[in-house]
Queue: 2 jobs
Job 1
Amino acid sequence: MDNKVAVYRKEHFNAAHRLTNPLWDDEKNNAVFGKCNNPNYHGHNYELIVKLSGVPDPQTGFVIDLKLLSDLIQYNVVDKFDHKNLNEDCAEFRNLNPTAENIAIVIYNILREKISSALSLQVRLYETERNFVEYPAN
Amino acid sequence: MDNKVAVYRKEHFNAAHRLTNPLWDDEKNNAVFGKCNNPNYHGHNYELIVKLSGVPDPQTGFVIDLKLLSDLIQYNVVDKFDHKNLNEDCAEFRNLNPTAENIAIVIYNILREKISSALSLQVRLYETERNFVEYPAN
Amino acid sequence: MDNKVAVYRKEHFNAAHRLTNPLWDDEKNNAVFGKCNNPNYHGHNYELIVKLSGVPDPQTGFVIDLKLLSDLIQYNVVDKFDHKNLNEDCAEFRNLNPTAENIAIVIYNILREKISSALSLQVRLYETERNFVEYPAN
Amino acid sequence: MDNKVAVYRKEHFNAAHRLTNPLWDDEKNNAVFGKCNNPNYHGHNYELIVKLSGVPDPQTGFVIDLKLLSDLIQYNVVDKFDHKNLNEDCAEFRNLNPTAENIAIVIYNILREKISSALSLQVRLYETERNFVEYPAN
Amino acid sequence: MDNKVAVYRKEHFNAAHRLTNPLWDDEKNNAVFGKCNNPNYHGHNYELIVKLSGVPDPQTGFVIDLKLLSDLIQYNVVDKFDHKNLNEDCAEFRNLNPTAENIAIVIYNILREKISSALSLQVRLYETERNFVEYPAN
Amino acid sequence: MDNKVAVYRKEHFNAAHRLTNPLWDDEKNNAVFGKCNNPNYHGHNYELIVKLSGVPDPQTGFVIDLKLLSDLIQYNVVDKFDHKNLNEDCAEFRNLNPTAENIAIVIYNILREKISSALSLQVRLYETERNFVEYPAN
């Protein structure tokens, strides 16, 4: 065992989306995505938990200052997706179905570029209290 | 003090909405409703708590069978609003701004007609964990 | 407006119960109580919130010392019902159907005798996160 | 029944405090306040829920813009108490024991001056998940 | 790192149980299991979280449709254990002590047969908010 | 896959602390730790989750009796830190900055000595609902 500690920061955003595959006709989209395929959209309060693992800095006792991590998530993720229509307003989902799985991968990729490679990264995204995802899987 | 007991049932639905006043221009709507005015909508996981107060039936010990209350909310409220765009898909909000306050009043009026007048009714609606409303106010 | 403050203390207990009316036959009990009528019992984690309202003591700033209230609930309610079968082990429910409504009334009556009449009392009981009751109703 | 709706906004702050009555000696303070009397302080994550009741504005559908209410609580309450020692850093508790009851009354009085008298006000303060208070009591 | 995403679905059931080892006498059972050994049973609201990890289908963006996973848990686990006495009503615990650990293993084994071996499986079971288990351990 | 099950027990304590590096001057401490550097302290409700993984005992079905684990955490951790000033009252933090990371490592080291080496150990510590840490990291 090394001395790595994981730190977690929870943020949230509210967004509209619909699930659809543009290569399929309406009948198939309805069969697969059901009411999530509503062409007028529905929405969620997304809860996002970002996990970083690393060795604490001996001078501060911090893996990372969680205020800085919060600001970084706010600026790069929340400002991009909060109170938006993921399908219509967000370039990331122009050609990608905004399932919870895909939203988590997109957020991971955004944050991975902004965070030191000395820290490992994982994101958990709650679409509802009962449905949530994590990327990458342990 | 009489013998009234209050019973509560919690349900939820996910919906898209936008806040807007059609009598105002875009500038005023943006000034008042900010990012909630996004013309492409955003969305929420709405948590709904329905409260009924009355004297328990001496034969059952129930104010109301909560399974029946759950079914009644499901049929009359959740099926109507879940995975919908409140502004576009729901006649109740064709001419009514879907603020949490107005959604709560609409739900109260729907349920009030379906529930015995011997029971008093109150609805609480969570738009997010930090923003919620109650109608009628105590 | 007077200067009354309400204070709340949350406790919990785990118990088995079944819902049944001994004056009815099995068919009627099943029709009314459904799977809650299982003769072998089922169970719950009950969450109990006790509310007392009164004027804070100017010397302590307390309506009541919540540690004392916690001990009082523990001794008079939790020790009586925790890890018990309400129907079989508890005299209070020998002739009373242990619905959430009736359990709340029983707990109110137990506590009412132990707490100064200068303080008003209300109990809220969660049978599940989605089903809960309050006595007396506001 | 009038048309009043209650709206709620939840905020939080983290603070240190100790409970003590300067007119009492150490023995009495220890007997009454126990480990809450630690002269080196302890602390809490306080969760604050502010409730306002009024008639929604027909043009906005809002009792009050919850973003404005959030800013008002932030500026007048959270900035004052967050990451502070209530006894040492806050004039409000120089001569007032910072029990949950008294903190709630102080917050009520601060907010009451800032909010239109057309709206009724109530504050709920969680000291822990299991201990909380409300002022004024219903 | 591969492209695996973990998806989670939360369900619940309410059940009665007692902890006991039929090879031991009452004295030993009481010494080891304490009030959990009550011969008349007690009960819990069990919260179950099922985790599946796999690569999302590029056509749907789903690891698995969570509605299908929910139905599968409902049919194979919840319908079997909800509102039951685990010791008396459930063949799985005829010869197996229904500790949280053993219930989690039983649920894992039930679900493992029903879910594609391309997906890895883990179950978490909350007996109370403060006591919970996970199988298999990471 | 072996037969290991993870069991979790949640406890809590309330404490005051400040973040500071005694080798730095006030200006640097303020720049790095911000309002967490308040010399009069602030405080938190710490939620602690202890995870142990091992093979259940075939006679009990327990990895460990969670009542025993709860008592062990209470005696060795909660009694030491609850209602304390971590910087002033606790020898563990005389020369160690009480960040969440360091508190988690200290608690891990305390518990590791008290728990059989056949069981693997991990601790999670919530400083607030939105900021938490885990040691060792997975």
Job 2
Amino acid sequence: MSFDPAESTGLNQTAESAISADGTPDYDRTYTIAPRTGIATLLQAGDTLTITNPSGHQVCDFWTFRYPGITEYLSMAHTHTALDSIMPKPGDVLVTNNRTPILRFLEDTSPGIHDTVMAACDLPRYHQLGVSGYHDNCTDNLRMAVAAIGLSLPAIPAPFNVWMNIPVEKDGSIRWQPPVSEKGDFVRFEALVDCVAVMSACPQDLTPVNGLDTEPDKLTFQVTR
Amino acid sequence: MSFDPAESTGLNQTAESAISADGTPDYDRTYTIAPRTGIATLLQAGDTLTITNPSGHQVCDFWTFRYPGITEYLSMAHTHTALDSIMPKPGDVLVTNNRTPILRFLEDTSPGIHDTVMAACDLPRYHQLGVSGYHDNCTDNLRMAVAAIGLSLPAIPAPFNVWMNIPVEKDGSIRWQPPVSEKGDFVRFEALVDCVAVMSACPQDLTPVNGLDTEPDKLTFQVTR
């Protein structure tokens, strides 16, 4: 009956994704997140993280965890209260499950349509969509990316689904739509405390969240200071 | 830096709220949740839980955890995916962070306005609202109610805020509104697996979520089979 949030349901190259033993990045280097995989990077307070969408149609599931002691993490539910909004925009300060400011949203070249209410995809989701056997998924990418730098996921926080287009209607109903972002769009965040950032290039290929008639694609990121 | 999700930031009578040593309820008994406090109750698969709002204006922060091994729990973010909606209604099946069906929403005598995107209130929230010193809060009520039956909270899941009225506009902005429920309204759920249900009579008295010009009030509940 016990459920281990850290236990991956399968493996992909995310398990070998460490950019260094503890996730410390090379500043100003452009790292590529291969399609369907994830990567974790350490950020020191004051560092800037830029996530770029080369194809324009690729969603990034995004999490941050205070470091060390990653039991405090970016929380969408607490951020909704902080922002009086479910749609973060540049200038906003995103907060943790203990309401600590963790990220400042600095810049967004896209039209600003993102999702903060949907869980990351996981293997049970793909099985419910009719897949048999393994399917890459953002939750396993999160688990593996964190494990790859020697940490263990304490819980599965709801992600900041950058560029995911999930309109919420007045009656609460939602729709799964393709992104409205364009080639080369990027988002930029400042780390307000030391933290681990994890990005997954979402492998969803059964709903149009990563574009109509397209394949999951890569993302890139850079850390600067 | 390490954050313990189980550690209460203060105490109230929730710490003494155990309805029995392990939370096993007396069937058909009406239990009262005192204003500003919480209670945990075990539910066996097939049991029915009815939560009643005597004043009509009192919000119930509500969580369920699979039992034993409470690391799998009702997840609003995963439930949004399951329902294609952020507004659960009778007939809906609510799911866990591992997408296991955990509750069936059986009945709702209120107009059906509830919140599933906001975090539970906590002491940092009240400090941000200008309170100095301790203020009762739903997160501590959750921690204490779980501890009162001998368990330790593994994480702080986003709650199902029953009767909380937080309209979400097309641009993502939200407003904090009084409940539209009326005296004696109730919601009823069927447990689909063995679980612990926790209810907190929200002590928020600085925003109108528990009604305009009103005080936080009691709730009641019954378990039947």
